[in-house]
Design brief:
Layout lengths: L1 H17 L5 H41 L1
Length: 65
C-alpha cells in the first residue's frame, strides 16, 4: 500500500511542477483543429461507406437475380 501512496504523490508532483500545460488560447486553437479534422475524416468515411454500399448492393442484386 505504501508503494501506491508513493506513486500517487510522485505523479501529482510531476503533473503540477514538471508538465508544461498549454495556455487557454493554445488549447482552443488545437480543439478547433481537432474538430475540423474530425468532421473531414467523418465525411470521407461516410462517402466511402455510401459508395461501397451502392457498389456492393448492385453486385449482390445482379448475382441474386
Amino acid at each position: 500500500m505504501d508503494n501506491v501512496k508513493t506513486y500517487l504523490i510522485a505523479s501529482y508532483e510531476e503533473l503540477t511542477s514538471k508538465v508544461t500545460w498549454p495556455t487557454w488560447k493554445e488549447l482552443q486553437a488545437n480543439a478547433v483543429i481537432v474538430a475540423i479534422a474530425s468532421f473531414i475524416i467523418a465525411f470521407i468515411i461516410g462517402l466511402m461507406d455510401m459508395l461501397s454500399n451502392m457498389l456492393f448492393s448492385d453486385i449482390i442484386y445482379k448475382i441474386a437475380g
